[in-house]
Specification:
Layout: E1 2-7, H1 13-25, E2 29-35, H2 40-50, E3 54-57, H3 60-70, E4 74-77, H4 84-87, E5 92-96, H5 105-108, E6 116-119, H6 122-131, E7 137-139, H7 146-149, E8 169-173, E9 196-199, H8 203-207, H9 212-221, E10 227-229, H10 237-243, E11 246-249, H11 253-260, E12 265-268, H12 282-288, H13 293-296, E13 301-303, H14 309-318, H15 324-335, H16 342-352
Parallel strand pairs: 1-2, 1-4, 2-3, 4-5, 5-6, 6-7, 8-9, 8-11, 9-10, 11-12, 12-13
Length: about 350
């Protein structure tokens, strides 16, 4: 069987690789399609490190032309795709999302249906089926977490990063919008001198010119001795999830992925909103978030302001079992079955259809 993975953004890879590995072991021919960007050099290094059979394109129309030429059995996509009608002339398609966050776009990505969409858990599968009754949704779980659940050594060697392995480790993983990043003080790492800090910003915060303020702050924080700032080549969030004792985040998928591993999370409720999302326009923010946003909120300790963060971190590192019962009760709803076999279920479906 011939399967192609569409890598529009590098951060799609951590969801793809466990599945590609399983399919390769079963004798499938696997290819990856990457899109030229400002980070071509980094992506080429990743391709070499992972030994990927890769092709390059300059946009989605060029990718479509490649898919029409290749005529693979399946083309795997992480997001909506504008040329599905063309691709479906020669291949079946999959939507395999890269995150499980609280944004409404998670559901809207199915407005244009792929042949099948793989979903995390029975609740979301049922909700999709009610929204799109004529389309196909299969509950498989969340493949990105398989390597951690299966005990693979995917974390960092903290010492090699210049950090102290004897200190507890914080991961700070803000999303790009709406984000808490610009509301963290310029010198905040100094207040957390007793912790290692792994900062994993969203790819857009370091790659898109409109978020240049994010990049400037991030580079300043990286100058502190207890901080490691992710490089563009650190595309794999699972390394941060595996290495950290506690996560600080906002409306990010990382928050739910970390909580699904039953580790404590501090959820920053203070967000830098554009003027068009404030005041009388606050409905735009609410529309951007999923209807379950409020229920999901109980999975973490909440910091209303930055000044609340330090005491919450201290408390939950000292007593990580706080909120464990909530994390465990919501993990199935958020990520589906956490048995390390999501990739196997995906491979089973693709090979049998």
């Amino acid at each position: 069987m011939h399967i192609i993975f569409d890598v529009l953004h590098l951060y799609y890879l951590p969801q793809y690789l466990p599945v590609a590995k399983e399919l390769t072991q079963r004798g499938c021919s696997i290819e990856f399609v990457f899109y030229h960007s400002t980070h071509d050099t980094v992506i080429k290094e990743v391709i070499a490190t992972e030994a990927l059979n890769a092709h390059w394109v300059n946009g989605q129309q060029e990718a479509t032309n490649l898919y029409l030429e290749k005529q693979a059995d399946w083309v795997v996509l992480a997001n909506s795709y504008p040329h599905l009608d063309q691709v479906h002339q020669v291949s079946k398609t999959v939507q395999l999302g890269h995150g499980i966050g609280p944004k409404s776009s998670y559901y809207k990505k199915s407005d244009t249906p792929t042949t099948v969409r793989f979903v995390e858990g029975a609740y979301r599968t049922q909700r999709f089926q009610e929204m799109y009754p004529d389309d196909t949704f299969i509950d498989v779980g969340f493949a990105k977490l398989d390597p951690i659940i299966n005990g693979e050594n995917v974390g960092f060697d903290l010492g090699s990063l210049g950090l102290d392995p004897n200190k507890p480790t914080i991961a700070y993983a803000p999303t790009f919008y709406p984000s808490s990043l610009e509301l963290f003080p310029k010198h905040w790492p100094a207040s957390f001198a007793d912790y290692n800090i792994l900062i994993k910003p969203h790819y857009f915060s370091v790659s898109k010119p409109k978020y240049s303020k994010h990049k400037k702050l991030l580079e300043h924080w990286a100058t502190f001795d207890n901080v490691y700032l992710a490089k563009v080549s650190d595309y794999c969030l699972t390394r941060f999830l595996s290495s950290a004792d506690i996560l600080i985040s906002d409306a990010s998928s990382a928050l739910f992925e970390f909580a699904a591993l039953n580790k404590p999370v501090i959820w920053c409720d203070f967000l830098k909103l554009r003027w068009g999302y404030r005041g009388v326009f606050s409905y735009r923010f609410k529309r951007r978030m999923d209807e379950d946003y409020g229920e999901y909120a109980s999975i973490a300790a909440h910091a209303a302001k930055y000044r609340d963060v330090k005491s919450l971190v201290d408390s939950h590192v000292a007593n990580p079992e706080q909120l464990a019962h909530v994390r465990l009760s919501l993990s199935e709803k958020l990520a589906g079955k956490l048995d390390g076999k999501a990739s196997l279920r995906i491979a089973d479906y693709l090979l049998s259809h």
